[in-house]
C-alpha cells in the first residue's frame, strides 16, 4: 500500500490524517480490460492520435485528497474537473481548473457572462458524460451525448506542462502533456475550447 499524509485544516488548527491508497507503478500500455465504454474510447483515441501517456491503476479515488498518492506516483498534479449546469438544467459546462484552486460558482458564472451555475446531478453526469462521481474527465468530450456541453478551461492551466486526469473511471489516472490535450485531443472532439480567468 502507498501511505501518505494529508494536512487538513479545521479553522486555524491543522490536523494530520492518515490515509492509505494503493497506486500501481506507471505504465505506458493500454489496459488489458476496460470497465466502461468511455474508458475503452479514451485509449482507442489516444492510440489513434499517437498521444503518449503514462497511467496508473489505483484504489477508487474520488476526492482531491485521494489523488495525492496518484500525483506523487506520476509526478504531476491532477486537475479538478467539474460538471456544471444552469438552474433550468438546459446548459451544461465541463470546467477544468488546477486541482488546488478553490472553485466559486459566482466567479465562474461572471467570467462566462452566464447566470449562476450549480453542480449537475450524478444522473446527468452519467447520462451525458459517461462517468460517475469522482471520474469526470475531459475525455467525455469524445462522446456524442456531450456534444452540446461547453468545455471550459481555467487560463491557469495554459502554461502547465503536464495534465493529470482520470481515464473515465475512479480506478485509472493518467498523465499527458497539456499541449496534447489542448492542441490535439480537443480539436479532434470538435468542441471549441473556451478559456476563463477565475
Q: What would you say this structure looks like, in words?
A:
It contains five helices and ten strands. By secondary structure, it is of the alpha+beta class. It has a five-stranded mixed sheet. The chain has a three-stranded antiparallel sheet with strand order 3-9-8. The termini are far apart.
- Shape annotation: globular
Mean pLDDT: 90
**What is the first-to-last residue Cα distance?**
37 Å
Q: Which radius of gyration do the C-alpha atoms yield?
A: 17 Å
The string of secondary-structure elements, in order, is: EEHEHEEHEHEEEHE
What is the helix content? Answer: 10-25%
Per DSSP E runs of 2 or more residues, the count of β-strands stands at 10
Low-confidence stretches: 1-18
Largest beta-sheet characterization:
5 strands, mixed
- Number of helical runs? 5
Strand order of the largest sheet: 6-4-5-7-10
Question: Strand percentage, roughly?
Answer: 25-35%
Determine the structural class based on helices, strands and strand pairing.
alpha+beta
Short description:
The chain has 198 residues and is of the alpha+beta class.
Which helices and strands appear, and what pairs or packs with what?
Layout: E1 2-10, E2 13-21, H1 37-49, E3 54-57, H2 67-74, E4 80-86, E5 92-97, H3 105-112, E6 117-119, H4 122-129, E7 150-154, E8 162-166, E9 172-177, H5 178-189, E10 194-196
Parallel strand pairs: 5-7, 7-10
Antiparallel strand pairs: 1-2, 3-9, 4-5, 4-6, 8-9
Amino acid at each position: 500500500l502507498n501511505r501518505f499524509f494529508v494536512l487538513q485544516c479545521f479553522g486555524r488548527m491543522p490536523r494530520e490524517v492518515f490515509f492509505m491508497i494503493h497506486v500501481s507503478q506507471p505504465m505506458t500500455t493500454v489496459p488489458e480490460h476496460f470497465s466502461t465504454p468511455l474508458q475503452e474510447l479514451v485509449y482507442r483515441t489516444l492510440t489513434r492520435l499517437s498521444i503518449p501517456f503514462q497511467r496508473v491503476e489505483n484504489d477508487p479515488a474520488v476526492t482531491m485528497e485521494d489523488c495525492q498518492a496518484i500525483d506523487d506516483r506520476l509526478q504531476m498534479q491532477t486537475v479538478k474537473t467539474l460538471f456544471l449546469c444552469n438552474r433550468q438544467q438546459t446548459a451544461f459546462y465541463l470546467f477544468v481548473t488546477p486541482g488546488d484552486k478553490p472553485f466559486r460558482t459566482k466567479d465562474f458564472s461572471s467570467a462566462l457572462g452566464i447566470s449562476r451555475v450549480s453542480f449537475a446531478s450524478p444522473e446527468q453526469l452519467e447520462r451525458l458524460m459517461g462517468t460517475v462521481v469522482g471520474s469526470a474527465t475531459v475525455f467525455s468530450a469524445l462522446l456524442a451525448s456531450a456534444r452540446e456541453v461547453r468545455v471550459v478551461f481555467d487560463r491557469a492551466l495554459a502554461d502547465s506542462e503536464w495534465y493529470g486526469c482520470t481515464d473515465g473511471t475512479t480506478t485509472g489516472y493518467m498523465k499527458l502533456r497539456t499541449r496534447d490535450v489542448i492542441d490535439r485531443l480537443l480539436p479532434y472532439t470538435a468542441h471549441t475550447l473556451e478559456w476563463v480567468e477565475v
